[in-house]
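Hi R.,

As promised on Friday, here is the backbone we talked about, encoded as structure tokens. Could you run it through your design pipeline when you get a chance and send me back a sequence?
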């Protein structure tokens, strides 16, 4: 799966570029680079000792070429966002980005991203939409490659720390707590999604075409992608053990994103990490 890159922009804009530029201008930093400048290289990651920070980019003018092992894999054009996966997941870059022409960009580092989400929570929804588009493309590529297997998937790290999880429980009423017995199906691949779920107790298996790709434990979540895109479920979920889940509707989900930037940051990290895990299969 080395040909799958998560630095590249979606094949076509899935967002209002004028709105995205507004967020980058409000919280980010302008950057002008000459043709031939390397913005980042494959394998790069932040280094506090060298005062190096991960950044994501919005391209205002120019063209940026993306390469892996010197082979071109795509071109970033005006209005595209790129480089966000490394900033959000803290994992090394999966590609090299080099300016093909003189370029004008806006950049966001981690602190600026958090400031942007605090000032305009809807920016989190825009980023989630972009990342979910990438994740759906990844899943489609994994399916077509035949690399899904019957082996158990990796255990998902908890999305919400204990403090944030307890805050969620306190903010939501008791009707959102739903028990599921072991082996019961919670959601079905291909169906419309009306809820996302946070695991409070027990564990849940996530499966694509019958192959388990992840196991979700306490503090983990699933089902959020269909809420954001209003598309079909891309995976099924089955209770591995007796479970207690928080069932969150779209309206409640949107309220949480808008009222709690930490919730949005946690969601972005979860989507990014899932894309990375699937690419490693």
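Update: got your reply. Pasting your designed sequence below so it's all in one thread:
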């Amino acid at each position: 799966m080395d040909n799958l890159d998560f630095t590249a922009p979606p094949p076509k804009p899935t967002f209002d570029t004028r709105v995205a530029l507004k967020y980058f201008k409000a919280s980010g930093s302008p950057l002008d680079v000459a043709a031939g400048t390397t913005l980042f290289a494959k394998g790069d990651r932040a280094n506090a000792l060298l005062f190096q920070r991960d950044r994501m980019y919005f391209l205002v003018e120019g063209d940026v070429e993306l390469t892996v092992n010197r082979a071109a894999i795509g071109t970033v054009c005006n209005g595209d966002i790129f480089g966000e996966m490394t900033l959000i997941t803290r994992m090394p870059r999966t590609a090299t980005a080099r300016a093909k022409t003189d370029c004008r960009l806006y950049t966001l580092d981690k602190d600026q991203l958090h400031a942007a989400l605090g000032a305009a929570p809807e920016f989190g929804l825009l980023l989630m939409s972009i990342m979910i588009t990438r994740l759906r493309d990844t899943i489609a590529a994994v399916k077509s490659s035949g690399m899904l297997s019957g082996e158990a998937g990796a255990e998902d790290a908890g999305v919400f720390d204990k403090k944030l999880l307890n805050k969620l429980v306190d903010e939501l009423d008791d009707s959102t707590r739903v028990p599921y017995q072991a082996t019961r199906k919670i959601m079905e691949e291909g169906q419309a999604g009306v809820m996302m779920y946070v695991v409070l107790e027990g564990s849940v298996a996530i499966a694509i075409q019958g192959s388990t790709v992840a196991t979700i434990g306490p503090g983990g979540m699933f089902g959020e992608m269909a809420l954001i895109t209003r598309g079909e479920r891309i995976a099924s979920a089955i209770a591995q053990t007796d479970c207690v889940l928080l069932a969150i509707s779209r309206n409640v989900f949107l309220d949480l994103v808008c009222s709690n930037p930490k919730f949005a940051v946690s969601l972005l990290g979860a989507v990014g990490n899932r894309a990375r895990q699937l690419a490693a299969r």
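One thing I noticed while checking it: Residues 1-11 have pLDDT under 50 and may be disordered.

Thanks again,
M.
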